[in-house]
Amino acid sequence: MKQKRIRKIGNSFGVILPQDLLQEVGVNAKTNLDIRSEGSRIIIEPINLTDHKIMKTFMGVLKDFDQTFDKLAK
Question: Rounded to whole angstroms, how far apart are CA atoms 20 and 28?
């Protein structure tokens, strides 16, 4: 386990992550991350942009054809 301290960066706070840790999980400076809390934990996970784009498209289809899907469900 690696211990890090939270640092003040402007009006925010941050943690500097070691390069070897980032390489181990396959992320780099251009990786988009999902950050959320679960209880007392902070979860940071890479976002697969392909999955994100598919989900965004799917949600758009659901919105556009909401009434049609509603009729089909009945």
Answer: 10
* DSSP, residue by residue, the chain: ------EEETTEEE-PPPHHHHHHHT--TT--EEEEEETTEEEEEE--HHHHHHHHHHHHHHHHTHHHHHHHH-
Q: In whole angstroms, what is the distance from residue 63 CA to residue 58 CA?
A: 9
Q: Indicate if the pLDDT at residue 13 is higher than 90.
A: yes
Q: Is the pTM of this model over 0.70?
A: no
User: Which residues, at least 6 apart from 45, have a Cβ–Cβ distance to it below 8 Å?
Assistant: 33, 34
* Dist CA 73 CA 67 (whole Å): 10
- C-alpha–C-alpha distance, residues 22 and 3, integer Å: 15
Instruction: Please state the φ and ψ torsions of residue 15, each to the nearest 5 degrees.
Output: -125, 130
